[in-house]
Design brief:
Rossmann fold, disordered C terminus, 14-stranded mixed sheet, 337 residues, globular, alpha/beta
Length: 337
């Protein structure tokens, strides 16, 4: 057992697992336990398509912090992408088109246009890739983070380095199964009850996983329509954004609408075999919460509320959360009212 401070990480989605990885990279003597009720394929992170494309509404407490989170996330993912571990970790690079029949602004993204290697307007020929009627479009290079591979990859390394995992539902910070010097709250939507945070709202998402090994480029259209390639020839078709919906059941009407929109953009999908329908609740909060708090004498660092951009921006926020946590271990933090 490590003889350093005892640290608990609540939540085993992409945010919690990335915090765990960064902590172990920082100091192997930390005695770290991940506590969660869902792991790997059962997390919201595993439902996500995982393309690096933060929505323009993604927001930290300031513009500068938001940009720092996004940039640091990009470099974190790039470091893994460039390593020999990339396939096992679920990282791949690809290109993407985004088209709109109505709004030019939909095709622009000020958060990544100066970050990704290529982000340009499409030409007239490219506008016809997905049929007629498209007025505006952009092409950009980006990456895919497949959490169905990334989460097991991090968990495997975490356990090999002496980390511990516990399956439990934490209902309050005072009922943790053990004593800890520091706790990271990466519970996503679970923080709504854990922290009585009424600013945290679910945005329901539903996707269809299909076999499309021929698909090599991601495509976005109007009305939250997207077609994103993945590993093992499995593509993700989406989607919906239903504000304040807790419905975890598959909705046949959403499925029909997703298929209709995606097949209109890419008719070859009509022949694609459907592998699965998935639902996830995105933990939406403005701003994303990354800050310290003392709860009944317990040092806590919150890192939640990423909405639909947790896979994209987990590393940048986790880097800040770990920095805050390390400072807390050295000092005392005033109780936040």
């Amino acid at each position: 057992m490590a003889d350093g401070p005892s640290i608990a990480i609540l939540g085993a989605g992409v945010v919690g697992m990335t915090v765990a990885k960064l902590l172990q990279d920082e100091n192997r003597k930390f005695n770290i336990t991940i506590i969660a009720d869902s792991f790997k394929e059962n997390t919201t992170s595993a439902v996500a398509a995982g393309i690096f494309r933060p929505g323009t509404s993604f927001s930290g407490p300031t513009v500068d912090i938001t940009k720092k989170w996004i940039n640091n996330s990009w470099y974190y993912w790039q470091d893994i992408l460039k390593s020999s571990e990339a396939p096992q970790a679920g990282l791949m690079s690809f290109s993407s088109y985004i088209f709109s029949k109505e709004h030019y602004t939909v095709t622009r993204n000020h958060l990544i246009e100066d970050l990704v290697p290529i982000y340009r307007a499409v030409d007239k020929n490219e506008l016809r890739i997905c049929g007629e009627g498209w007025k505006y479009g952009s092409y950009f290079s980006t990456i895919k983070i497949g959490c169905e591979r990334y989460l097991p990859w991090v968990e495997r390394q975490f356990l090999e380095k002496g980390g511990k995992i516990m399956t439990s539902t934490v209902e309050s910070f005072t009922s943790l199964p053990g004593k800890y010097d520091l706790v990271f709250n990466c519970t996503g939507l679970g923080a709504k009850l854990l922290c009585n945070d009424y600013n945290l709202v679910p945005i329901r998402g539903q996707v269809i996983k299909v076999k499309a090994p021929w698909l090599k480029t991601a495509i976005y259209g109007d009305y939250d329509t997207y077609i994103i390639p993945g590993f093992d020839g499995i593509a993700t078709l989406g989607g919906v954004r239903q504000y304040d919906s807790y419905n975890m059941k598959i909705c046949k009407y959403d499925s029909a609408a997703i298929l209709e929109r995606c097949c209109e953009m890419l008719p070859a999908l009509k022949k694609a075999e459907i592998v699965a329908h998935k639902v996830g609740l995105r933990p939406h909060r403005i701003p994303v919460r990354v800050e310290p708090e003392t709860v009944n004498g317990l040092k806590v660092v919150h890192c939640y509320g990423h909405g639909g951009y947790g896979v994209t921006c987990a590393p940048g926020t986790a880097i800040d959360a770990v920095r805050i946590g390390l400072d807390l271990l050295k000092t005392n933090v005033k109780t936040k009212l």
